[in-house]
Every structure is written in structure tokens, then in C-alpha cells.
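Limitations
The C-alpha cells in this dataset are predictions for the assembled complex, not deposited experimental models. Users should treat interface geometry with appropriate caution, especially where small molecules or nucleic acid strands are included. An illustrative entry is reproduced here so readers can see what is and is not provided.
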Amino acid sequence: MAKFIGKPVDRVDGRLKVTGQAKYAAEYTHKNMAYAFPVLSKIASGEVAAIDAAEAEKAPGVLTVLTHKNALRLQPIDVDQSIKTGSLLGELLLPLQDTKIFYANQYIACIVAETYEQARYAALLVKVKYKETKPAIDLEKEPKVDSTSPRAKQVIVGTPVEAFNSAPVKIEQVYKVATENHHPMEPHSLIAAWEGEKLTVYNATQGVHSSRHLLAQTFNVPKENVRVIASFIGGAFGTKAMFWATEPLAGMAARVTKRPVKIVLTRPMMQHCTGNRGATRQSVYLGATRDGKLVSRRHITETCVARLDDRRTEYLELAGGNTSSTYACPNIEITHKVALLNVNSPTPMRAPGEAPGLFALESAMDELAFELKIDPVQLRLINYGEANPINKLPYSSKHLKECYEQGAAKFGWSLRKSEPRQTRDGEWLVGYGMATALYPGYRSPSAARVRVNSDGTVSVQTAAHDLGTGTYTIVAQTAAEFLGVPVNKIKVALADTDLPQSTLAGGSRTAATVIPNIQAACEALRKKLFELATKNNSSVFSGKNIADVELRDGGLFLKSDTNKGETFETILKAAKIDSVEECVTVNPEGQKSNEPCFVSEIPAEQNADTKKWDFHSFGAQFVEVGVNEQIGIVRVRRVLSYHDCGRIMNKKTARSQAFGGVIFGIGMALTEESHYDPRSARFVTRNLADYHVPVNADVPEIEVYFTNQPDYKNNPLGARGVGEIVATGVAPAIANAIFNATGKRIREAPITPDKFL
Amino acid sequence: MRPFKYTEGKDETSAVRAVVVNRESKFLAGGTNLIDLMKEYVERPNELVDVSQLPLAQIKNTSNGISIGALAKNGATANHPLVRQNYPLLSMAILAGASGQLRNMATNGGNLMQRTRCQYFYDIAMPCNKREPGTGCGALEGINRIHAIFGWSDKCVATYPGDMANALYALDAVVRVKGANGQERTIPIQDFHRLPGNEPQKDNNLEHGELIIGIDLPKNNFANKSYYLKVRDRASYAFALVSVAAALETDGSNIRQARVVLGSVAHKPWRSGEAEKALVGKPATDATFNAAAEAALKEAKPLAHNGYKVELGKRAIVLALQRAMNGGAE
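Predicted assembly:
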């Protein structure tokens, strides 16, 4: 087994991408296409008092100016229904339905014109008067209330306060992580085209089906009337998982002008209008015994939610959420408080909750290790857990010890000096740091269609997504593996609502969701091919049953006799058909797909039974930094990432994801921060010159290892996702290394030069 | 972007004339800053006069140093043997800025003309006296982490963000410009940019329609003891929080001549006469450097979020001087 699975197969879409043939949403064209450009609110709170579009309407090329006065009335989003169908909501704001303003740069009008430039220019000519109220923007000063999100329910295990108070050793600190923005290379962009009551949308989205569902609701048409396509996506990191006002705005512009309409956001709009990782202020209390055993852990997070959101579905950065699974501990408190701010809705951003949560927790663990004079790796081993400390379920598959021990050995951790300021390299103080990485192992229902064609090629279709992560490639590898054809014979189609419904690309769930589905579909196809071959009186298989045959070398062959079999071409020709296909749905335990395909049952013990097991991926990040203390410059000198994410489907694409994750973590640790102007609640960081993602010169050599231990309780192939865990633990490992280098503990990320002074 | 007319500048005289007759026109060279600002609607010319094809890209020896064409690209300038050998400080400063791609587009004249990175200047929904006189200064009581600690006024706290000019200030450059009457004039570099005062909309002392044609650098003895230090939020492709152009000429162990220019601390490159005075005639020791750094920052007036620049400026001066003494090595 495993001729293809796990191998470092080159990206099947790599050539398309580097030759510019992979088409992204904004790259499609329609005849007669028009262009929309939104007009943005100057204020963050209040109302549009008057809007004068006369000059804009007269500008060259302008087809229409949409405002609250003439906008199409859209159907409000049914929150209950969306919760029930699992369509992730974003902002509940439908554009131009009234005059209310909840955040800066909210869409208040929209130009539709013959060209992009004309639309963009005319947007400057719209005159707006406002009735402004003072926006709430300061997380520190605004009152905090309990979050009403079910996900943020307070957790108390045992007696955390008492246990902390009586603990022999205590760490009590506040850690802060700044507001971050996703800024994928490809901005949000879409083309909406109506034909009668049918809407087709090319959309840079992580969820074609949820986008369809919400567009159908908004425009009050059956969901079958809406087709959403997102074949290629130029990075997303969560910002494209939610439904934003841009989507109905494009649909509205197209409907009103009766033209296909393209809308592409600018970088400042990406900053203001497409979500962000809300800032967090986290109070962490660790109580431990002298020999390092945690006796109490309290994690109290203050963060923000958007004023406009429905409080039942408000999104907040759950910094204390999954981080609670990191260590064994008998007494735990997890609390989240929120301030209601005039901001565009905070949104999941790569490892939402886990990334900032681990910055706080893993910094505190390092402080505890230093206080106790215990090696940081050792302290984590002392508190190693085999079961989730809250729901008490055993972990389905946990090989974190290997990550700690092998990672430390490969990194050369034993050379670390336990006291700070012991290693110097010219002007640079050098230090080592480490932290635990963690992310849940989610899996969702999925359907896929696999078709074998008479020319020996194979089509695989499923409405999962490839955000640039490698989904196309691992789907092709899996089909190749189970159909016995080479990868280059397999044509994969993804992210189109015309295809069988699969998962939204979020929560690192795509691999674990799609891969068992492809496997099951291939298995169903093997049966179908065998039936077809025997029905047509093929002599080769007479007297044989399905257990005797296997798929390989482009056909169906006897297991017992490697030469005996029939090619797909022969089988299909005999049956007088061009192709044979099977659409198969697989549902993890306790979940159900909406897709009416043939349901293939996976044995319960291999089917992500969340009542029996806790599914998490784990890892360890090791970092060496150099610090030029004099001018506050930190250089990450090397990083070693060691992760336990189940079976690795493709060593090459997984490794690339890990590189990206480490770079994401370097961004959180050292460079990325969005600042709001305190009076206007407008971001002053509006472009990639102000918002600093790491550049090549910030990124050192990165070594990546995986345990590659299949998690067979999650799914029959044992794959779990990679995309998010790899971004966790990096920021605290860097902060811990800075402490080891300098003796200075910086508890606010990003750690910019000014924080050393 | 406002629709605009594009005019090809055929020669210096006609290009200058084209701009002189139209108050709303601008010269276009590399366009790396101007076009961005036009997209943001911060710059709103109704005409661009393209001077990029004029023959002003030469870098050559003169009797008293070198002359650098206004249209020589930043990248070509930084890598030119005459610059690298005789003015390594200029090479270092240019290479500390932007990216390879931008340096291959951007010209030296355009670099002197680059505008502030104050975020309030860039966002047309914010007040900004530099962009729209009379609307107020958004940064004065807003987020001013990257703003001025010297020479600001209550009308404007923006900084000049570039790197190249800081080195030019240290190297006593002279800017040659061609004016409306077809006459050339020279502007000593320290008089090129200006402080905001009551007219922050004016970055420099050029008249409308004056075209930069070249930059002259006199000979000096700084080549083996100079250093450009740029402190920024990431390792590359970021504007400076504070930068220092430092150059020394020594006589035995004593300092004969010194230049200390701070970048990103004021509306113009901030040459510190106080620091230079504290260095000249003194031994090139850490104690001297520290005294110079203290002198340079003594009169700093930080705002709410940029107090760190005072201490950072001092430390950066010391480090730049140390590295200069070290021949540019760490």
C-alpha cells in the first residue's frame, strides 16, 4: 500500500499556477461585464444623514449609483436557519439596506460603471453627510460583558481559584496580542452574473456552499438557482470563510444593471471590510507544585465583538478555548469577556483562539519553568496529559512526547543555557525558546463523485477547496492510490456548488474530511466496475467475487493472478458506456450531510466519534533568536517544527504548509499589528507598507518534522489537518527565546523594537 | 484616481514649461510613489509630464567629486562603482530602502520628492493639513508612533520617510534644478526639504515646475568610516522607525570631521550639528559617541506614542558611529 499517499508528489496544479493558467475569481471575464466599486463610510458609528450622488451619476461610464435610497431590498439573513444548516455567518449586515453605520469604511453606496477605473473615480464624487456618534473602539476602556456565544461558555473544572491561591508556586501575568489582519495575496473578489432568476458567482471564498446558501437567502431564490465557483484561491487564512457584505453587493449590482458585475477589493478594504483577529488581553494564572505539576490554570480573556453582530452568533477570539487541552490539570477556569466595539466583525484567522491563546499560556509556562528552575521541555513532560482535562475524553492519537523529545534532540536543545544572557555572538545575544503547538482534529461530512472514463482517465469531483494548500494534489494522490492509476491521469475538480457538497475550508478539516470520502468513493467504484465486468460475461472474473479483485494499472485485476484482468476501457466498451461513476457521501459519527449521494458507512471506531475520543493534533516549536538589545532588533535564526498531525498525505505540501505556518507565527511574534485611530475608529494601518507581514529577510531556515502516525480513530486513513497547528506555538517560542537571550520578558505581541526600550 | 492628461516630456525645457503653465500638473519619473498616491486620491494632478526618457541618468566624475543624474535609478546609483568606492554611505542608505524592484524603477530625483508615510496623509477620510490645508492634523493626537520628534508644528507631525536623502545630507550634496525661466540653480541639500511650520503642504523649497536634473557630491574623506543604520519593524521593506547616517574622518585617534544625520524623526532629514560638535576634535571612543548621542536628542519633543524614538535615536547614533569606526562592519 501507499504507492502515492504520503509521497512528496508535486502539486498537480503547480504548472497551471506558475504559468498563469490557474484562473482566480477576478480573472474570469464575461461579455458586457461591468465593474462595481463601493463607497465607504468615513465614520464608524452613526448614520448617513444625506447622500448626494448626482455628480457621481454624471461621471463618465457610470451605469448606476446604489445607495440606501435605491438599493434592492434584500431578505435579512435568518440566523436560526443558518445556525441549523451550519452556514458560517459573517457580518449580518446586508449592504445599503438602511442608513445605520457600525464600523468605519462600511459600504454606504456603490458605483457600477463600464470600467474599474471609472467606478473607482466616481466613488470619490459621492458626497455624504453623516450624523456621527462617538464610536466605541478602546478594548481596554470599554466595559466588558460575558460573551453570549455558546462557544464561549465559561468552563470551571474543580476549584481553580482556591487551588491557585494555595499553590506553592504561582505565575500571574497579563499577555496581549494585537489586532491582526489576514491579508492573503488575493483580495476578496467576485463576479456575479444573473440569468433570469439564476445567479452564478465566481467568488474567492473558502465555502462555496455556505456562500450559495446565504446568497440564495438574501436574494430570496431557491438555493439551486445559485452557483458559486472558487476553483483557485490565492490564500485565505479565514477571511474568506465568512459571508461579507461584498457578496450581496455584487449580486445586487449585477441584478440592478442586468450586467455581469466584477468587484475586487483594494488593500485598505481588505483591512477594514473583511474581518480581523480581534486583539486579546489575557490574564493567565498558573499554580504549580514545587516539582512542576500544575494544580490550577485560569485563563481569562478579554477581547472584542462587533456591535452590529447578532449576539447569538457573535464571533470572538477564543483564546482560552482549545488551549485548555494543552496540559493535564485538575482545576481549570476558562473565561471570555467581550467589549462591543465599532469594528468590522472579528473573524477566524489561522488558528483562531489557539494562536494568541498559546502565546499567553506558553509564555506563562516558560515563566513557570524559569521560576521552578525546571527545563521548559521537562515541565511540559511533567504535565503531559493523555486525556482532555475538561471533557476527560482520551485523545484519539497523541504522540506529542516524540515531538518534544525528538524535536529537542534534533534542535540541540541540550545546549541551551537555563540562565538568560549567557550566549553572545558579536552584537547579538542568542537564546533558545520552545512552546507547545496544538489544534483540534476536526472532520465534517463530505460527498464526492469519482468517474472512470473509457480513455483511462479519472475525474474526481467534490466541492472542497484548495486555498493554495494542496487539496487538489492530495485528492489526486488518494484517487490514484485506490483506483490504481497514475496521478497524471486524474482530473480533480473542486469548489463548485455544482459538485457534490463537501466541507468549508476552515478548521484544518479538509484533509480528514475529503480523503476518507475519496477512498470510499473509489471503493464503491471498484464494486461497480466488478459488477459491470461480470454482468457483461467477462470470462476473466467468472466464479470470482469482489474480494478477489483489485484496481491497478488502469484496470480491474485478479489479486491471485497479476496478469489476469481487464482494463477500464475494455470493461466500459463491453458495457457500451463511456464512463462509470459513483457519488458517495461519508458522515462522521453524529453528523449528517445534506448531500443525497449514496452513503458509505465507515465503521464507528474509525469514524471520528467525538463522544468517545478527543481529537487534537499536537506539536512542538523550537526557536533560536538573536537580539540586538541596543536597538531592539530580533532576528529569528532558526526554527524547528515537529508536529503530530496523523498521517501526512503529502510530505511536500505538508512541509510547505509548515513553512507558511512558522512565517505566520513570526508575524504574530514580531511584526503584525493593526492600529485603530482612537477617535475615528479607522485603522491607520491600511496597506502592506503599514501592516508588516514578515518578508524573506525575516524568515530563517525552518526544519519540519512530522510524527506521521495515522489517527485511525479519526478516519480509515488516519489523516488530520496540518494548516493551522503549524502556525501555533511559534510566537511564544520566539518570546521565550528572547527571554532566554536577554532576560527581558515581553508579554505583548508583536515584539517590535520600541518594546525593548 | 482622477482622470489626467499624459504628456511626454521631449526635453528639459519643454517639460518644465508644460508643468509651469499648469498648476495642477506634475512631473512623472519612476512613479513609484506618485502613482500610488494618485490611486489613493491623495495626489490629484490633472496632467502628468513624463520626464523619464530625458537624458539625465548619468553618473560621472567631476572636478570636485561626482555628479549623479536625477533620472539615474536608485538601484543603478547604489551599485555604481564611483558611488560604492567613494560614497559607500549613499550606497548603504539606498540599499536600506524599498525593494530591488522598486529601486530599479525609482529615480534619484523622485526619491528626494517622496512624500511622508504618515497614515493620516494617506487616508483621505482623515484630517491632514499636508493633504488638505486647514483640515487639521490627525496624527498630532492620534496614533503617532512613526511621527516626528523634532521640528514639528501643531499643523503637522509627519516625517520625511526616505533613506537616500539622509546620506545626501551627510555628504553635503547639492541639488541642481532647472526652473521656469530655463535657468539652472543649485540648492544645498540642507535647504532642499523644509519643516512643516504653517505650510505642511510644502515638503520642500522647489518652485512649481522646477525640475531636479542632478545631484552633486563633493569629495570627502568619509569613505572608509561611514555607516547607515536603519531601525525598522521588520528586516527589510519597511520604513525606518529611526535611521542614522554617520560619517567620520579621523586624524590618528581623534575625530577631524563628523556627520550625524537622523532619519524619520522630522519633516526633513535631521542633521545634528550638536552631535557633530560633540564629536569633532574628540577621541573616537564610546564615551564621545554617547555624548554626541545625548547632544543630538537633547532637544527632542516626542509625542504620545513615539517617546521610544528618543532613546532609540541615541542608541542608534552610538551604534552607527561604532560601526562607522569599524569600517562599516558590525
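Some entries come with short summary sentences. For this one: Chain A touches chain B through 43 residues (CB under 8 Å).
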